[in-house]
C-alpha cells in the first residue's frame, strides 16, 4: 500500500512538473511569430526609439500620422542603457521592430548583410544636408533617414579663463601648443580629458580630428570601406606622436586617467576654471546647462578644431555624430513606413526639434533656427556642418562595435602611455585579420 | 512486534523523503542551468553574430582561445583579484562577525549600519565610487598630502586593482559578516565556560574554540568569494571598464565584451565554457581540500 501510494505520488509529481515545464518553455517562445505577422497584415509599423528629450516630438509626429488614416505606427521608447543589446537580440529573432532609431554607419552594416533592412526611396534624400546622409548609407544604398539633430565635435572653452590669461582660442596647432604652456604656467589644465576607461570615446575625438587634419577624410574612408592596411599610413603614426607629445607636455593634466566624462568630471573642470578647454560633442552645451546654466549662457565659448600646419585635410572638416537615423526592416509594410518617414522633414517636426535645442540636418532647418533656445549656438553648429566639405562619423560608430571596441582600448593605451606611437600603429593594424 | 515494525517503517519514510520531491528543483535546474550550459558548449564550436543562424566552425574558437595573449593576462588578473578579495574580506568579515555576535546594544546598532552597503545595487555602488575616486573633486584630492602625485588611482594598473578590491570588499564584507555573526552565535556557551575555567584567555579561546567552530562557515564564505569572483563583472564594467588598457579585464568581463560589444558569440561561448570549467574545478578543489564533503559536525561529543 505504502509503495503504491508513493509510486502514484511520483507519477503525479512527474505529470505536474512536465506540464509546468511545457508552460514555462511556451511562455518563452510562444506568441511572437503570430504577433509580428498580425502586425504586418494590419499595416502596423512597430517603431523603437531611444529615450531622450525629443521623444515628445516623435510622439506628436506619430499621433499626427496615425490621425491621417494612411497607416498605423506604434512607438516604443527604450532606455538608453541596453538599447543596442535589445535591438541586436530582437533583430536576430522574430520580435524584430518594423522601424528603429540608430546611429548609422557600421551598426547598420551587419543588419544589411543579414538582409534585415530595406532600401529606402532615394527621393527622400533631397530633403537633408548631404554631409549628414553619408552615414545613413551602406554600399551606396540609402537605409537610414536622419531623425534628430546633428552633433558635431568641436572645442569648448572657458571665456573667463581665457580673458584672465589675455589669450585667444586656438586657430592653428601651434596656437594650441603655445596655449598648453600658458595655462600650465598658471596651474590650469589646458584641456579637460575623461581618461577613465569607461570614457575612452572622448580620447578618440582627438585622434579622429588629427588624422583628418593631417591626411584628409579619404584615409579613414578607405579604412571604413575595408582597406585595413591604411592604418600604416604615416599620418596615423604622426597623429599618435602628436598625442604622445600633448600627454607628455601635460596638456590634459596629470591625473586624467581617473577623470570621468560630464558633470562631476570634465564639464565641472571646465566651468570651475580648473581646465581651460575641452574637445567635446555639441551636447556639452546641454550638460553645462544642466549643471551650471549661467556658465552655459555667458561663460562657455566654442570654436572649430584648429587647423594643423602642413596637413592635407581641409580645416573646415568636422567629425562627430552627423545625426541619428531611422531604418526600416523587412517586417514593416514599406509604404506605411515611407509615408511616416516623410513627416520627419515636415516643418512641424523640424521646428519641434529646434525648440528642444537640436540642430536638424534638413534643408528647411535654417529658417527655424531663430526659434532655438540659443539661436547663436544653433546657427554656429548649422553653419559648421553645412560648410563642412566632409563630416566624418565617429570611428567607433562608423566601424561598428566589433572593430570599434578594441580600437578604443588601443587608443586608451596610447593616451595612458601603455603603448608607444609605434606600438599603437602595429596593434591597431592587427585588429582585423 | 508488528507495532515495532510499523514504527520502524514510519521512521524510515520520515527520515528519507521520496525522490519525487527533488523533481521540481531538478527540472528547474535542468531548464535554467544545464540546458544553457549545453547551449554554450555547442555555441563554442560555432561562428555566430546573433543575427543569422550559427555556423559550425569546429575547433576554430578553441585554437584561437589557446593562442590569445589576453586570455593569459585576464586569467592572471582574475586570480589576483580573487586572492586579493579573499585576503581582505575573509579576516575582516570573520573578526567583525565574531564581534557582532555579542549581544550588546551598540554592536547591534553598528552592525545594522554596517549592513547598508549590501543593500545598494552594484551599479549604484560603482557609479558612486567612480565619483569618489575622481582626482579633482573626490577623495584623492583631499588626500593629496598622503598620495602625493599618485592621485590617478584608476589610471594605473595597481591602483585600479586596489580600487576594485577595496570597493568589492566594502560591498560584500557585510554579507560575509552576517554569515559569521550567525555562525558565531550558534557556538555553545558551555565551550567558552569550560575554557575559561581551564584558564584560557580571549585570544586562546578565539583560536581554539571560535575558529575551529567556524570552519564550515569559513569554507562556505570562501566558496562564495571564489565563485562570485569568477562570475562578477558588473563592478569591473562600471568602475574601470577593464582599463587602464586591458589591465583589469577579468575573464567574465572579457566574455561580456566579446559577446555583447564585439558580437562574437561563438568565441564568447568558448570563454564562458572555460569559466564554467574553472569555477567548477575551483569549488571542487575547495570542497575536497577542506573535507567539507564529509559533512562532519563540529558539535560532536556535545
Task: Quickly list its features.
heterodimer, A: 433 residues, alpha/beta, D-Maltodextrin-Binding Protein, domain 2, six-stranded mixed β-sheet, five-stranded mixed β-sheet, 49% helix, disordered N terminus, B: 302 residues, mainly alpha, MetI-like fold, two-stranded antiparallel ribbon, 16 helices, globular
Furnish the topology, listing elements before pairings.
The complex is a heterodimer of chains A (433) and B (302).
Chain A: H1 2-29, H2 32-41, E1 44-50, H3 55-68, E2 72-78, H4 83-91, E3 99-102, H5 106-113, H6 130-133, E4 137-138, E5 141-142, E6 145-146, E7 151-158, H7 159-165, H8 173-185, E8 189-191, H9 201-215, H10 217-225, H11 234-249, H12 266-271, E9 275-281, H13 284-291, H14 293-299, E10 300-303, E11 318-321, E12 325-328, H15 334-341, H16 347-355, H17 375-387, E13 391-393, H18 395-399, H19 401-416, H20 421-429
Helix pairs in contact in A: 3-16, 9-10, 9-11, 9-19, 11-20, 13-14, 19-20
Chain B: H1 2-15, H2 23-43, E1 46-47, E2 55-56, H3 60-67, H4 69-100, H5 105-114, H6 116-119, H7 122-132, H8 139-142, H9 144-147, H10 157-185, H11 189-197, H12 202-213, H13 215-231, H14 234-239, H15 251-260, H16 265-290
Helix pairs in contact in B: 2-16, 3-16, 4-10, 4-13, 13-16, 15-16
Would you mind describing this structure in some detail?
The complex is a heterodimer of chains A (433) and B (302). Chain A is built from 20 helices and 13 strands. By secondary structure, chain A is α/β, with parallel strands linked by helices. Chain A has two domains: 44-150 and 322-392, 3-Layer(aba) Sandwich (D-Maltodextrin-Binding Protein, domain 2); 152-320 and 400-429, D-Maltodextrin-Binding Protein, domain 2, CATH 3.40.190. In chain A, strands 7, 8, 9, 10, 11 and 13 form a six-stranded mixed beta sheet that branches. In chain A, strands 2-1-3-12-6 form a five-stranded mixed beta sheet. The relative contact order of chain A is 0.17. In chain A, helix 3 runs antiparallel to helix 16 and helix 9 packs across helix 19. In chain B, strands 1-2 form a two-stranded antiparallel sheet. Chain B is globular. Helices cover 72% and strands 1% of the residues of chain B. The mean pLDDT of chain B is 87. Chain B is built from 16 helices and two strands. Chain B has helices at 2-15, 23-43, 60-67, 69-100, 105-114, 116-119, 122-132, 139-142, 144-147, 157-185, 189-197, 202-213, 215-231, 234-239, 251-260, 265-290, and strands spanning 46-47, 55-56. In chain B, helix 4 (69-100) packs parallel to helix 10 and helix 4 (69-100) runs antiparallel to helix 13. Chains A and B meet through helix 1, helix 4 and helix 19 of A and helix 2 of B.
